[in-house]
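REVIEWER CHECKLIST
Item 1: Sequence provided? yes
Item 2: Single chain? yes
Item 3: Sequence as submitted:
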Amino acid sequence: MSELSERAASDSFPAGANAEAEAAKLNQGALEFMLGAQKIMFEEMVFLGDEMLERTQTEMHLFTEFVAKMAGAHSVRDVQTMCRECGQHQLDFFRRDSERLFRHAERMIAATSNLISGRSPN
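Item 4: Structure as written out by the authors:
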């Protein structure tokens, strides 16, 4: 607060005009912050919807592949091979999914950091 009054006293403008300019600047900053936060939340909701849809499609694909292989298995050795292959597909899917989510988390942390520091979230 004392910093604001020192700036008001040191400038050539009247104290009232300077205070109004500071208040306008603070209001603009708050507005930009709120709009940026709203944009980030909306992008997160869109991302969540896309992720849920993609995850469901992938899980359905893996399940149909599992059922098809199970129907084609005629011996214990075939079932063991099928379980090994399907397990490997699940692990590969989990790895890719985790990497994608980690990259997204990094982007969200950067966007939030930019928003807090006053820069554009993009």
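Item 5: Key structural point noted by reviewer: The helical segments are 2-10, 15-72, 76-117.
Item 6: Recommendation: ____
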